[in-house]
Design a protein that fits this description.
With 113 residues, the chain is an alpha+beta fold. Helix content is 20%, strand content 30%. The chain has one domain: TATA-Binding Protein (2-Layer Sandwich), CATH 3.30.310. The longest helix has 12 residues. The radius of gyration is 15 Å and the shape is globular.
């Protein structure tokens, strides 16, 4: 069995809702109720990104975008136990399918880029 060093995933979508509303809905439908909060950034940098308040099964999530076009990015930080393993597990398709089943048509539309 191949040892995976870390996982990542991306999902682009469109919504008429604000990033805060989208974050609340993704929190409920995808991340078991873990809230999205404003990402702490340099005060000189106007950043509207949201991040999960805490990791979800060791996975970090960030929601970014504006004017109705958003990207959800998830991933793990490679740990010392997986050091040396260059294998990446891309879970983008699984993430898109989960969001489509739970959310599409209700408040967003998946975009293939």
């Amino acid at each position: 069995m191949t040892q995976i060093g870390y996982i990542l995933g991306f999902c682009d979508f469109e919504s008429l809702r604000s990033i805060d509303e989208v974050g609340r809905l993704l929190s409920i439908e995808v991340f078991g109720g873990i809230e999205f909060v404003r990402k702490v950034t340099d005060e000189d940098y106007d950043d509207e990104n949201l991040v999960l308040r805490q990791d979800f099964l060791g996975i970090q999530a960030e929601l970014s975008g504006e004017r109705g076009s958003y990207t959800l990015e998830i991933g793990t930080i490679p740990s010392a136990s997986t050091e040396g393993s260059g294998e990446v597990g891309d879970v983008s398709l699984m993430l898109k399918q989960r969001i489509q089943r739970r959310c599409e048509g209700v408040f967003l539309c998946i975009v293939e880029r």
